[in-house]
Amino acid sequence: MTEAYCGSFDGIHSPSAHLTSRYQDVASDTIPHDYEDPLLIADLRKPANLRVQYLAAIHRLGTGALALSLWVIPFLKCAVYVVGRYSQRRTVQEGAGGKRVPIISFRTQQLPILHCLAQIAVMDAFADWATDQHSNNKALHPGIKHGLAVILKAVFLQNGQASLANLIERSGAQGMYPHNQMAAFESLTRATGIAEGEVLVLSIRLATEVLLGRYSIPEATQPGCFLAQHEKGIISDLRETNKMISNHRNDEYNRHVLPHLRPMVIAIGQRMAYEAALNAGVDKDLLALYEAGAIKSDSVWYSEHLGIGRADQSQKECEALDAVLPRLDEHLESLGIEPYCTAPMLSSDRWKGIVDAVPTLTGNGEATFPGAENMDSKL
Ligand SMILES: Cc1cc2nc3c(=O)[nH]c(=O)nc-3n(C[C@H](O)[C@H](O)[C@H](O)COP(=O)(O)OP(=O)(O)OC[C@H]3O[C@@H](n4cnc5c(N)ncnc54)[C@H](O)[C@@H]3O)c2cc1C
């Protein structure tokens, strides 16, 4: 590699902005000369225990995983605000000759918007709790401290990826335009799953250590709630499977346990997030909707183990949606994100600004076809 392609400090080379492109502010490739991290001035002799040394060397990953995951909250706030407002102003005709109705009147449009609002409320509370534990709870075992970051990351990734994909899809063609911000949020959320430790690999390590009993994560404070029962059931099933497998590095563990470890971490996180929101006094309708969404994410388990069938789950979700919907405006406004939303799809004036800014090509051709007089933009 030449200097043109590398950042360098004191003879150490790392990929420069050319390689890391727009994510270079995340993948920081410069380290100040006066940075006295013991890692950089560590003893170069081979350590007695390579694994312990390696884990010590990367211990800051937990902090990075926690910190980086937090930006999923403003991504979701911005996306839901933009799609929520768009869905209120975009109208379609109800049948031939019918009146025009905003698309927010359709339950299919309400679903991703209202679920996202519920997730944001709960994630905000979970973030406050987890960052406080991480920074201020000196009694926390280092493994658990790292574990909390992994748990938060897994839950934020799941909510972020699912909600952004659904919000983008429900925005039609508008969701594709880079100007409308959401495609960038989706890409950055994906990056969050990889940077500071790939989320699946982090989950595998944490869940395996919990199953092996190396340490325990903070237990449920509301053991009777649905999400706590789910967490307990998932972990105890995996513990049973694990008992029959002699070694967590063998092929059986690979085939039978590995695929269930990320869902296990998410189950723990959903319960923790719910409790954090309950303790923080999050709006009860939003909390009920979050719970309904979490149940939906592992619908079959609740049906098999708690006897809550599809119809009951659907009814619970429907009631929670009905309770949140009348306060949609209030919930959107309370996000406080509008000043940060640059998406032109937010209003017809902004969209007109984009249309007016593109070059106009003129000619003298004439095209006419039935309905040509009613060619209002669908966008
Ligand atoms: C925005 C961004 C910023 C970054 N910044 C930095 C930085 O500042 N410093 C730095 O050192 N690195 C940085 N990285 C690199 C990052 O840490 C790695 O990309 C990440 O750890 C994943 O490694 P990989 O890309 O080699 O993927 P791989 O390890 O090749 O993973 C590919 C797939 O294999 C799976 N896999 C890998 N190992 C296992 C396993 N043991 N068991 C099961 N499945 C497995 C993964 O789940 C994944 O699906 C950054 C990455 C991104 C995206």
Architecture per CATH nomenclature, i.e. the level-2 architecture of the largest domain: Up-down Bundle
Derived from helix and strand composition plus strand pairing, the structural class reads: mainly alpha
Give the neighbour order of strands across the main sheet: 1-2
Please describe the biggest sheet, giving its number of strands, its sense, and whether it closes into a barrel.
2 strands, antiparallel
Write the H/E string, N to C: EEHHHHEEHHHHHHHHHHH
**CATH class division of the largest domain:** Mainly Alpha
Radius of gyration: 25 Å
Shape: globular
Instruction: Estimate percent helicity.
Output: 55-70%
Bound molecules: flavin-adenine dinucleotide
Strand content: under 5%
**CATH fold topology of the largest domain:** Butyryl-CoA Dehydrogenase, subunit A, domain 3
- The number of helical elements comes to 15
Give the CA-CA distance, first to last residue: 47 Å
Query: Number of DSSP strands?
Result: 4
Number of domains: 2
Determine the CATH superfamily of the largest domain: Butyryl-CoA Dehydrogenase, subunit A, domain 3
Description:
GO terms for molecular function: acyl-CoA oxidase activity; FAD binding; fatty acid binding. It holds the Pfam family ACOX_C_alpha1. Residues 75-207 form the Acyl-CoA oxidase C-alpha1 domain. The chain is mostly helical and 379 residues long. It has 2 domains: 1-31, no CATH class; 58-348, Butyryl-CoA Dehydrogenase, subunit A, domain 3, CATH 1.20.140. It is 59% helix and 4% strand. The protein has 15 helices and 4 strands. The protein has helices at 17-20, 50-57, 61-69, 72-89, 107-136, 142-169, 182-194, 199-211, 226-243, 251-280, 284-297, 299-306, 310-324, 328-333, 348-357, and strands at residues 6-9, 12-15, 91-93, 100-102. The strands form 2 sheets. The protein has a two-stranded antiparallel ribbon. It has a two-stranded antiparallel sheet with strand order 3-4. Strand 1 (6-9) and strand 2 form a beta hairpin. Helix 4 (72-89) packs parallel to helix 6 (142-169). The protein is globular, with a radius of gyration of 25 Å. The two termini are 47 Å apart. The model is unreliable at 1-21 and 23-31 (pLDDT under 50). Residues 23, 26-27, 191, 194-195, 197-198, 200-201, 204 line the site of flavin-adenine dinucleotide (FAD). Flavin-adenine dinucleotide is lined by residues 23, 26-27, 191, 194-195, 197-198, 200-201, 204.
